[in-house]
Amino acid sequence: MSVKITRNAAKVIKRELDKEENKGMALKVFVTHAHGDHAHYGLDLVKPSETDTVVPTDKEIDVVIDLNEPFLSGVKIDYLYFPEEGFVITNPSQGNHGDH
């Protein structure tokens, strides 16, 4: 199971994780809605439990995921500044290249 975080997304995520009120928290990516051959995703900060699966990334950010959700394998988290500022989560390995 792999998770890719872009440089832009890592900067924003690390800024949030470094806040005092978020100490001990980890980033969680999850499927909000799946239909057909693709899914829509969400992000949250959570305190990982012993039963959570935590996946390390090359950006030194641990991500909590559900191993039983196939749409999470190969997920990519990006942060765009244009045309709208915010996170964009896709899964190119599952044929999902963005919301419709």
Q: What key phrases describe this protein's structure?
A:
100 residues; mainly beta; Hypothetical Protein Aq_1857, Chain: A; 4-stranded mixed beta sheet; 11% helix
What does this protein look like?
This protein has one helix and seven strands, in the order βαββββββ. It is mainly beta and 100 residues long. It has a single domain, classed as HesB-like domain (Hypothetical Protein Aq_1857, Chain: A, Sandwich). The strands form two sheets. The protein has a four-stranded mixed β-sheet with strand order 3-2-5-4, with no helix packed on it. Strands 1-6-7 form a three-stranded mixed β-sheet. The two termini are 25 Å apart. The mean pLDDT is 91.
